[in-house]
Structure prediction request, 255 residues.
Amino acid sequence: MVSPARRRDAITYLCRRHRVSQRHPCRLVGQHRSTQRYVGVPGDFETRLVKEMHALATANPRYGYRRVHALLVADGWTVNVKRVERLWRLEGLRVPPRRQNRWGNNASGVDENSAWALPALRPGHIWSYDFVEARTRDGGPLRILNVVDEFTRECVGVLVARNIGARAIRKFLEGLFAKHGAPSIMRSDNGREFIAKELVDWLREVGVTAVFVAKASPQQNCYVERFNGSMRDELLNGEEFHSVTEARLTSLRVV
Prediction:
């Protein structure tokens, strides 16, 4: 008697013949009781299991094999997580990679566009713009877009709103260009609003070159960054805004 199946048959016979529990026959034959009590699975068990795993993976694309195993157990499947892992890998199932930030992939900033490599030579030559964040008293977000003339260090415009996208920036700049004249260059970081094709193409049409500093290098856009820091220190940190309108009126102090 070598195979577990033959030992199982012998133990069953001894239990029935001598009317004893499995403990003594198992010790006598040399078979573990868990092996004796093992119930074989149907021949198509793994086929059905794999089919169910595929269905769960399709319905829950961000789930790995451990979470799929938990769903299987909750549905009444008696299956070990190791078996699920083995079949998961054999079937080539995997959690799809997270989508990368498509805006970051469009970043085109370079060191040559930094404030010291490309300095302003006269008033109205280069404007830089960037956002500073704040909140109203009820916790609502505030976005403040500051536009600074780099030669004079003066703020030529401030836009305050809950949300500011590329279209809102374009409309705001149209008013500033009509009032002050258009600069030769607009410098910014690689924020998705600034690198938006709609805004960049429009700037090109009105004769303004959009340049972007290197990614993750705010110091290269130092003039508007310095202005934003002063605005936060001297104005935003000492004010409590109850509405967007109040924030707009208060921000006029810096223009």
Remarks:
- The longest strand covers residues 126-135.
- The first helix runs from residue 4 to 18.
